[in-house]
Amino acid sequence: MQGKIIKGIAGFYYVYTKIGLVECKAKGIFRKDGMKPLVGDDVCLEVLKEGTLTGSITAILERRNMLIRPACANIDQALVIFAITKPDPNYNLLDRFLIMMEKQELPSVICFNKSDLAGPGEQEELRRAYGGCGSKVLFVSADRQEGIEEIKSCLAGRTTAVAGPSGVGKSTIINTIYPEAHMETGEISRKIDRGKHTTRHSELLVLEEDEKVEDCGSYIVDTPGFSSLYVNDFEKEQLKYYFPEFGPYEGLCRFSGCDHVHEPDCAVKQAAEEGKIHEIRYNDYVAMYRELQEKRRY
Q1: pLDDT in tens, 37-52
Q2: How far is it, in rounded angstroms, from Cα 188 to Cα 194?
Q3: Beta-ladder partners of 7
Q4: Among candidates 159, 148, 187, which has minimal Cα distance to 76?
Q5: At 150, is the secondary structure helix, strand, or coil?
Q6: What is the pTM of this model?
Q7: CA angle 180, 182, 185 (to 5 degrees)
Q8: Which residues contact 288 (CB under 8 A, 6 or more apart)?
Q9: Greatest CA separation found in the chain?
């Protein structure tokens, strides 16, 4: 029998199948091979006892892709949610997430929530900052249920990893899209203006079923909130290729192989000074470049 892992907790895996949700343990061979089942995995399983919904995972089918953070497999795209305000967005964290997805060759949709709390000037500034980053940008208000249909349209027919830091309204948006989730929604701490962690493990939710279980129409993978991400598994010289808005200026710098940080007569730096590349994106690039540069010294 085949199915798809929708949740994994404390060594138990819950597999969505034609006969229902089967609680499974993974065979020891996976530990021996250093392979761990992930939410989103398509698996083979055997039911341990006729008439029960308990079983054992016997094989993990070939993965299209795999993410370490958030931990999930077979993803078509990512929906990353940040608040426009309360809490203010951490742009460096957002850019790190976009780089992680770009490195996996996965498209991203950026969703800025709490648009009802922000003025049109703030939205326009974010649109300018991220309009050239290669990701679709949405502005929504989960509390007012504004922009939800546009999110649903982006999710249709895809398996989407939904991620974002705590307190940005991720759980509220998922509850609105998928009321059956009954997810706990965290309140923002008034003292520190940050949210409590309400999602403690990745979980796959079936939004729209297809006739075959192993090929359902629409899934979302809800993932735990994050507060930091490290982009350090490639060389600093590669970093510029993960900023699509730099593309039109490549080859126009005075020196070939320009790092867009230290060299004079740099077309990218000039574009940033002229506002053609937003300062948020360029400043984050410089910060990450120097982080990678410092890392290589040790």
Answers
A1: 999 999 999 998 777 8
A2: 5
A3: 14, 203
A4: 159
A5: helix
A6: 0.84
A7: 145
A8: 92, 95, 96, 99, 231, 239
A9: 73
